[in-house]
């Protein structure tokens, strides 16, 4: 192979490599390797509205369905930590008898990434005694930790505790 042929071969090889790299980069940018879109703080805050609407149905299964299978619930009006679907349903079977209506008073949302976020703050519930019809308001601190699993936002950790000075 003479010198000219070797130079041509080197130029052709270099050109082929640059072309291949350029095409690969263009395909990966146009293709599906785009990072997932992060939710807005407003979208995460609205997950409470979905949960609160589920409470109003009076259906404990509907409420528990918003929790991941491995979720942890530290509820306001029970000393028992709930760590599976059946325990979460059990809690809401009792809690829903009081016809709770929740309202956020203060909320702080932290979007951690495209698939996880935390909503924490203060909310209050108006509860109605099923026997007497007497209403009472319970103010509580809350934390919801959400994860997007299978395309759906689920509660993975929910802590709620009555205000100590309330």
Plain-language structure description:
It is a single chain. The chain is built from 4 helices and 5 strands, in the order αααβαββββ. With 166 residues, the protein is α+β, with helices and mostly antiparallel strands. The longest helix has 28 residues.
Question: What keyword list fits this structure?
Answer:
single chain; 166 residues; alpha+beta; 4 helices; 36% strand; globular
Structural class: alpha+beta
User: What is the helical fraction, as a range of percent?
Assistant: 25-40%
Secondary-structure element series? HHHEHEEEE
- Which strand-content bin applies to the residues? 35-45%
Number of strands: 5
| Unreliable stretches covering 5 or more consecutive residues | 9-30
Mean of all residue-level pLDDT scores: 86
Biggest sheet layout: 5 strands, mixed
Per DSSP, the total helix count is 4
Global outline? globular
Order of the strands making up the biggest sheet: 1-5-4-3-2
In angstroms, what is the radius of gyration?
27 Å
End-to-end distance: 91 Å
Describe how the helices and strands are arranged.
Elements: H1 3-30, H2 41-56, H3 60-64, E1 67-74, H4 85-95, E2 101-113, E3 116-128, E4 135-149, E5 152-162
Parallel strand pairs: 1-5
Antiparallel strand pairs: 2-3, 3-4, 4-5
């Amino acid at each position: 192979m003479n010198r000219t042929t070797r130079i041509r071969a080197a130029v052709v090889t270099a050109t082929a490599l640059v072309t291949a790299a350029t095409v690969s980069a263009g395909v990966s940018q146009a293709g599906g390797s785009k990072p997932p879109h992060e939710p807005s703080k407003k979208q995460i805050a609205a997950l409470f509205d979905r949960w609160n609407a589920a409470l109003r149905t009076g259906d404990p299964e509907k409420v528990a369905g918003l929790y991941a299978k491995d979720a942890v619930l530290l509820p306001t009006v029970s000393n028992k930590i709930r760590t599976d679907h059946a325990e979460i349903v059990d809690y809401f079977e009792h809690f829903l008898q009081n016809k709770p209506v929740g309202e956020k008073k203060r909320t702080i949302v932290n979007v951690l990434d495209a698939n996880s976020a935390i909503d924490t703050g203060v909310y209050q519930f108006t509860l109605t005694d099923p026997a007497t019809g007497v209403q009472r308001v319970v103010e509580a601190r809350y934390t919801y930790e959400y994860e997007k699993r299978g395309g759906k936002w689920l509660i993975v950790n929910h802590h709620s505790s009555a205000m100590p000075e309330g």
